[in-house]
Design goal:
The chain has 553 residues and is of the alpha+beta class. It has 12 helices and 32 strands.
């Protein structure tokens, strides 16, 4: 180890600058616990060098320039600092079938069904099988590549609700994206130097040099050996073989939901797959709402909604994940642990989500969307391009309306800073979080489920969340329009046994100390009328539902 050369990034007057190479043991900026973690990862993965990420603007520009040189992204000249990535067609979504929770006892992870049936509420792997799978994947997996060490915070760095992580990865695309999706770099390392605990995240694309086969779209991945492993007892995540965001940006679903839900159970709070928004009525009364929807079911559109009713305003705190904890006065407070939006592009337009369109106009990484000949992006749901402007699809091939396949992949994404949202809530980075007045559950149900109803009480509300079902979407590998059980919109993200998860939710009603439980509702924005037109979040229905529940009798 002492002879391993490491690229050290130091700060000089706030500017990150490379100052040569040193051994890991001689880097004074790495706190002991971080150094131990990095040393173990280096010993196992055998990278050519190590880059400790500072999070500076200069460093970000350098990372993107390197990605462009390697052909992993291309600049979009129509916009300010925007980039397009095209992945290997085998690496386009979360892979639930290869996502596991590793615990000593199976019942700690999943309810064990009778007759050996496969659980639909998580996937368990034994510790022995995990060690075999790890040994088959990680040794030497970063040969010839740079290992990036990313210190990051989920939530505002100073918030008591926030948690820290350190991710090692051989993907500069992950570094660029984590710089958008998390608070990343030197301020977090300073906290770790003070002894703060952190989740250990290890990720590899699984394509060491020399390559044994050519890359597709210059996108390194190893789809045959993809495995996303979570070790909640030791607060570890190990992801192998995929560069797609949900599998490689380990601060997102892996940390913020699967590991965090277990931490929340142990510490008495909630980590949920929920948007957070503030809604103000014409009288100036403001309420905050947390809402759970499965992926690709309109969370981002609702979180950034432009109300059609005069006098109403909506402001966005977050569009995907909520960490919620009761304060000393018994009020449930929530933070958005993320720093950006990782939204589904198709269907996003000036009609359905004008605020999202404004947000993504700069400093954005687009993945698997279509490209216009004038240096822009395009996807289904946008207006046709101007006359004389041609389209290239997500495979990099010429495309026109009427072609058999879509121009943009159905799960194509934009990764963009939350602070750019024109309706970002003034309290979105509040250390204490925003007060939650209502929790909403909802899914994609074409028929049979009303637009909105309120639960009788907290226990009934937990039942409503537990009985959620929704039409499958492109956010995971499922095909067709099968209606799937998706309790709490957490089916792919439970970090521990669903029975224990239900008990944890029910325990909120009997917790010690003052408790002001929020109201609970169920909504269905996707019910279709007799002409098979879907009621979208752009309509006043969501505002009416919220006003009825929050401001009405």
């Amino acid at each position: 180890m002492s002879c391993l050369l490491l690229g050290l990034i130091r700060r000089r007057g706030g500017v990150g600058a490379s100052v040569g190479v040193r051994s890991l043991a001689s880097i004074p900026s790495l706190p002991p616990a971080v150094a131990d973690f990095v040393k173990g990862a280096v010993d196992e993965c055998k990278p050519a060098n190590v880059h400790v990420v500072t999070g500076s603007a200069e460093e970000s520009a350098h990372i993107l320039a390197g990605l462009e040189k390697d052909g992993m992204v291309k600049r979009l000249p129509k916009y300010e600092n925007c980039w397009l990535a095209r992945t290997d067609p085998k690496d386009v979504a979360r892979v639930e079938s290869k996502t596991v929770i590793v615990t000593k006892n199976q019942r700690d992870t999943i309810p064990v069904p009778n007759g050996g049936a496969k659980s639909q509420l998580g996937s368990w792997m034994s510790e022995g099988d995990f060690q075999k799978a790890r040994q088959d994947r990680f040794p030497g997996c970063m040969a010839g590549r740079t290992m990036y060490v990313i210190p990051f915070s989920m939530g505002p760095v100073g918030s008591p609700l926030s948690k820290f992580g350190v991710q090692v990865t051989d993907s500069p695309y992950v570094v660029a994206s984590m710089g958008i999706m998390t608070r990343m770099g030197t301020p977090v390392m300073d906290k770790l130097a003070q002894g703060a605990e952190f989740v250990r995240c290890q990720h590899s694309l699984g394509r060491p040099f020399p390559l044994k086969a050519p890359l597709v779209n210059s996108w390194p991945c190893n789809p045959e050996k993809v495995l996303i492993s979570h070790l909640p007892d030791t607060r570890q995540i190990l992801s192998f073989g995929s560069g797609y965001g949900g599998n490689s940006l380990l601060g997102k679903k892996c940390f913020a939901l699967r590991i965090a839900s277990r931490i929340a159970k142990d510490e008495g709070w909630l980590a949920e797959h929920m948007l957070i928004l503030g809604i103000t009525n014409p009288q100036g009364v403001k309420r905050y709402v947390a809402a759970a929807f499965p992926s690709a079911c309109g969370k981002t559109n609702l979180a950034m909604m432009k109300p059609a009713l005069p006098g109403w305003t909506v402001e966005c705190v977050g569009d995907d994940i909520a960490w919620m904890k009761f304060d000393s006065q018994g009020k449930l407070r929530a933070i958005n642990p993320e720093n950006g939006f990782f939204g589904v592009a198709p269907g996003t337009s000036l009609k359905t989500n004008p605020h999202a369109m404004a947000t993504i106009a700069k400093n954005t990484v687009f993945t698997n969307v279509g490209e216009t000949s004038d240096g822009g992006v395009w996807w289904e749901g946008l207006d046709p391009p101007a006359a004389g402007v041609s389209l290239t699809d997500w495979h990099g091939k010429s495309w026109k309306a009427g072609d058999s396949g879509p121009c943009a992949h159905p799960n194509s994404r934009f990764c963009t800073p939350a602070v750019q949202c024109p309706i970002i809530d003034p309290q979105w980075e509040s250390d204490e979080g925003v007060p939650i007045d209502a929790i909403i559950f909802g899914g994609r149900r074409p028929e049979g489920v009303p637009l909105v109803y309120e639960s009788f009480n907290w226990r009934h509300g937990v039942f409503v969340g537990a009985s959620m079902r929704s039409e499958a979407t492109a956010a995971a590998e499922y095909k067709g329009k099968v209606i799937m059980h998706d309790p709490f919109a957490m089916r792919p993200f439970f970090g521990y046994n669903f029975g224990d998860y239900l008990a944890h939710w029910l325990s909120m009603e009997t917790r010690k100390g003052p408790t002001h439980l929020p109201k609970i509702f169920h909504v269905n924005w996707f019910r279709k009328d007799p002409t098979v037109l879907t009621l979208l979040p752009l309509d006043p229905v969501p505002v009416l539902g919220c006003s009825w529940g929050l401001f009405g009798p």
